[in-house]
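Our preliminary data section would be incomplete without showing what the modeling component actually yields. Below, a chain of 132 amino acids is followed by its predicted structure, encoded as tokens that our downstream tools consume directly.
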Amino acid sequence: MLKRIDHVGMAVKNVDECVNFFQQVLNAKVGFRQSDEKNKVKVAFLEIGDGLVELLEGLDLTVGIGKFVAEHGEGPHHICFEVGNLEDSFSTIGKKGVELIDTKLKPGAYQKKIAFITKVNGTLIQFCEKIR
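Predicted structure:
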């Protein structure tokens, strides 16, 4: 089911400041940036080796990432595992009695389908599949 760790999501107050740090200090490359008004989030993916770090800034402090940062501060938000078949993996996890966070698959950033699966020890678990 799990192919690899795809990315780690970090909730931040300011994506641009974080991107500048990673680029200027650590020579990281930005692979993708997006401001999503519908979901009230600004996103940047940093390419680090064969993995990714997703920086997430909430555009509204009352929902989603903005609410998360307001309540918990900046820091790790989720870990995402790439799976071979997102629909099958999502279904299999549900049949094992795991209470799923998302009720359906959804389009994600960086040409991926995603689903938040569950929370383990305070960390959200997300699955993704590359859109082919």
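The beta strands are 2-12, 29-36, 41-48, 51-58, 75-83, 106-108, 112-120, 123-130. The chain has one domain: 2-130. Preliminary results of this kind motivate Aim 1 of the renewal.
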